[in-house]
Amino acid sequence: MIDKLADNRVYRSYLGGSRIDEFLTGLPGKDGSYPEDWLASTVEAFNPGHEIPGEGLGRTVDGRLIRDLVPNGLPILVKLLDAAQRLVIQVHPTRAFARERWHSPVGKTESWYILKASPEACVYIGFQPEITRRAWEECFQTQNISRMLGFLHRFSVKPGDCIFVPGGVPHAIGGGCLMIETQEPSDLMVIPERTTPSGIALADSKLHGGLGFEGMMDCFSFEGATREEAHHRFFMQPKRLDDSCSCLLNGRENGLFSVIRLSVCGNYTRSFSQAMGIAVVLCGHGTLELNGQTVEVSSADRLLLRDLNQGDLHIHGEPLDIVLALPD
Question: In Å, what is the CA distance from 138 to each residue of 110, 132, 142, 192, 216?
């Protein structure tokens, strides 16, 4: 089955979203407090002080709740994310840590595929070699944000970059980035900044995520690396699978999810072992055919593919450019 997805903008404590508006409508957008579009989500957002029941849960364009279509939940969450300003420094749990401390079956390892980037766009990711837990805790206690950022590696980013962010690794997305984020399906995080760059004070529960201020530091992996080591670990190199398909992130290597890019001009057929996938049409128009169902698609369509492993996916593009995220 191929289901087109409805818009599903979610509140966050940072500003952005204009590039998502432009991507979806082709018209100039406006930055605000809804800088993320959660695709086919079966996960609710964690927004202390801004709670809306069911926020984050995705629907199809005809109003069906994805949670009803996939009763056991999707093993991945995919987002369009547009940051107009630097996000707060944060860290997400590994699956093992999430099970032990949050009693969650999943953590929040994630990846970022950059679609658009301003000239100054950057990301902060991974600790410098000189990091110690004591120094990091001192930064948190004194809220020395400039020193915190100095403990992280800062990398410029450009369209086409794919960054893998394992659980336990501190990071912050810089302003000027539009990306497709693929992650484990949770909203678990720890944040050591009490106030966002735009001046929004965060609730204590948003900072420690229920772990308490003593327990929150356990979520960080205090393993430093040189700049070269960090770039090699976090920046993925795409691998060409054939003339129309490139693997951006290999799920067999990370054990969680794959991300591929399909650039089709004419007819193309591919089979998949995964039962489900989430697709974003970057540009072009054409058709997708799966298990006897044919759907016309065009730029900015977002799609849930179900029973993907039950038959070949046939693509006709004139041309058509698609990013497809797949659980492993």
Answer: 27, 10, 6, 11, 14
